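Exercise 7b. Backbone tokens:
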């Protein structure tokens, strides 16, 4: 394993953090923690922890010896000093002789001794860091270490690989009990600088940040070399067979089945395929070795104790796959329920079963589908599942994968301290995928902000590539260049969405252009183009969305940006108003044809919104035609109040969340009787 220490980089960290008031100790702690966290073969997504023993002042100005230890849930890859809360060291050390400390008391005690009460909760391994008498301590879940521990005879193998500077610790669940065991081991072996925790990971320690980091790289490299020396044999693979479908075609099916046809329980389904995943999932014995547990215990809260394996029938159709997947998911739920019932009675505390949906689905010869309540959770599950696949497959090439007993894995999965890492208040639209066309315009962007604020995953489509690139630079969302007038372009965009998110729940068909001219004199080509822009573009998107929503079978919602021109034509505005009138009928037709599928179709009838369509030039022209000011023109409604893009966004949101409203058009114009629906 490459050592990425750079003295030049270390000096930059020292300078940066000194300038904002942090000590040398903390600066180096942040630097080496990031070095570890950014190596995916060492640690992923909130796993592992580091610490440094230093001093800090309390609010009363008194200086204390403290342990700055990684806060629970913080990601080592981008940690800041705030992610290393300072805990008074003396009280921690005073508990060395205590025989037992409950999890609740442990957490309470750690929080009570924080220098800053607003700091994040210190790691569950805080006492372990405190009891080891070293300034710097590093802990990772290195793949190579797991490769040597997670096999029959792993303990013996470790003792063979490492020298007398390393002690090997049998598996013990993290917390106070593990800290006590480590203290006992160190007391008997005070010359050690490393601990290998069976089926868990590795600790290195020293009085210097570089020394401790160097030790981590040294011992992980030793493990890598030891594994390479073993006689390896490739995992036997299943016979390749052709399928008549792609990932984007089956993602919505999987997504719907995972929700168990419950529209209120939606998941994000993220697709990935590479050589590591292919090799693992296409192994003949994948159902055996994939069911033996995760690579390290804390992965279980993200990926559950085992994945779902689906083997499509040879040359199967989409319908065939749906039947196969439905049966497989049903059996997975039964298996998980049995796992829960078998282990719940072995613990003292009452446990409430988590949802029974898998978090990782391998479809042989197709790829891996990772699942989460949002995209970030799905991505974390994806990365952890890939690491599990690599570690397990590597062990299987030289031995048989072996992990901790099922009961121990259950204890971690249902451990309140672990579940706390992923527990959060659910937002109204969490798990929903929203697609907005014409997204770079004023209305599109305001609508994006509205739906994002309620927890939705939002995909932004637009034809203007320059504006889309500019938008992409400001927000962390999927932005797709798409010509909504072109069926192929729409299909390609929706395929991308299905691969990344698993499907679509809400389509906000917002794209359009404004064409003008007296209807009897307008060029036919202009009129036809306006129909392409303002009618057929909506039909292209809606028809594609419907296909996906029907596969999901968890309801859906179509929302159209119509216009007051659909019911109240303006002079010389027929080329725009006519396709908008057709769009109004289209909106209602979708409500009629797909209501039985739980798919709603509604529209927003907006008027006089400052946007890409109604720009300053158009506003001035129309105000001049009425011999009034631009402000008076924009306030030309019953309420004498200008309607803004954010008001239209609120209307879309209202219709999206009004679960018993379909075939409706919501007018947002401040009051205009001439344009009201009759």
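Sequence design result:
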């Amino acid at each position: 394993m490459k050592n990425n220490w750079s003295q030049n980089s270390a000096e930059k960290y020292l300078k940066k953090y000194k300038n904002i008031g942090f000590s040398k100790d903390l600066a180096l702690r942040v630097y080496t923690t990031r070095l570890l966290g950014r190596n995916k073969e060492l640690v992923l997504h909130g796993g592992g922890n580091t610490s440094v023993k230093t001093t800090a002042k309390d609010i009363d100005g008194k200086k204390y010896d403290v342990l700055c230890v990684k806060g629970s849930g913080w990601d080592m890859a981008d940690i800041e000093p705030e992610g290393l809360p300072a805990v008074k060291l003396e009280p921690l050390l005073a508990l060395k002789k205590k025989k037992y400390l409950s999890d609740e008391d442990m957490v309470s005690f750690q929080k009570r001794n924080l220098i800053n009460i607003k700091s994040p909760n210190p790691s569950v391994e805080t006492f372990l860091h405190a009891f080891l008498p070293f300034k710097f301590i590093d802990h990772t879940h290195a793949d190579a270490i797991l490769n040597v521990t997670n096999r029959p005879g792993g303990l013996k193998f470790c003792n063979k690989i490492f020298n007398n500077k390393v002690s090997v610790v049998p598996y013990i669940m993290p917390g106070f009990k593990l800290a006590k065991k480590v203290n006992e081991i160190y007391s008997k072996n005070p010359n050690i600088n490393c601990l290998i925790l069976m089926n868990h990971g590795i600790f290195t320690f020293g009085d210097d940040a570089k020394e401790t980091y160097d030790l981590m790289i040294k011992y992980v490299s030793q493990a890598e070399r030891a594994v390479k020396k073993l006689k390896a044999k490739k995992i036997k693979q299943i016979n390749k067979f052709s399928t008549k479908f792609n990932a984007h075609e089956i993602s919505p099916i999987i997504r719907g089945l995972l929700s168990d046809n419950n529209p209120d329980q939606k998941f994000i389904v993220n697709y990935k395929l590479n050589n590591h995943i292919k090799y693992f999932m296409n192994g003949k014995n994948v159902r055996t070795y994939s069911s033996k547990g995760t690579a390290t215990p804390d992965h279980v809260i993200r990926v559950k104790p085992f994945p779902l394996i689906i083997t499509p029938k040879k040359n199967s159709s989409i319908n065939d796959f749906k039947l196969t997947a439905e049966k497989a998911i049903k059996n997975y739920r039964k298996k998980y329920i049995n796992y829960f019932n078998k282990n719940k009675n072995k613990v003292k505390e009452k446990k409430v079963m988590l949802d029974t949906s898998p978090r990782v689905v391998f479809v042989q010869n197709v790829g891996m589908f990772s699942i989460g309540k949002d995209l970030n959770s799905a991505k974390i599950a994806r990365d952890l599942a890939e690491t599990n696949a690599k570690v397990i497959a590597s062990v299987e090439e030289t031995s048989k994968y072996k992990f901790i007993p099922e009961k121990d894995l259950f204890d971690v999965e249902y451990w309140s301290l672990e579940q706390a890492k992923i527990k959060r208040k659910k937002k109204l639209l969490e798990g929903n995928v929203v697609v907005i066309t014409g997204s770079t315009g004023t209305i599109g962007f305001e609508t994006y902000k509205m739906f994002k604020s309620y927890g939705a995953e939002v995909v932004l489509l637009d034809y203007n590539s320059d504006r889309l690139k500019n938008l992409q630079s400001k927000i962390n969302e999927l932005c797709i260049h798409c010509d909504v007038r072109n069926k192929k372009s729409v299909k390609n965009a929706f395929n991308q969405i299905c691969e990344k998110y698993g499907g679509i729940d809400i389509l906000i068909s917002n794209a359009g252009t404004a064409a003008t001219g007296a209807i009897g004199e307008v060029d036919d080509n202009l009129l036809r183009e306006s129909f392409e822009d303002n009618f057929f573009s909506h039909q292209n998107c809606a028809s594609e969305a419907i296909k996906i929503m029907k596969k999901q079978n968890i309801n859906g919602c179509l929302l159209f940006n119509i216009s007051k021109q659909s019911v109240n034509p303006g002079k010389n505005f027929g080329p725009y108003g006519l396709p908008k009138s057709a769009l109004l009928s289209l909106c209602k037709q979708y409500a009629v044809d797909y209501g039985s599928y739980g798919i709603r179709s509604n529209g927003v009838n907006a008027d006089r919104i400052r946007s890409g369509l109604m720009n300053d030039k158009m506003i001035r022209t129309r105000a001049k035609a009425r011999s009034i000011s631009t402000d008076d023109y924009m306030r030309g409604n019953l309420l004498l109040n200008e309607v803004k893009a954010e008001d239209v966004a609120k209307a879309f949101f209202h219709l999206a969340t009004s679960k018993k409203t379909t075939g409706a058009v919501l007018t947002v114009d401040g009051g205009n009787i001439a344009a009201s629906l009759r």
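Instructor comment: DSSP finds 25 helices and 18 strands in the chain. The radius of gyration is 30 Å.
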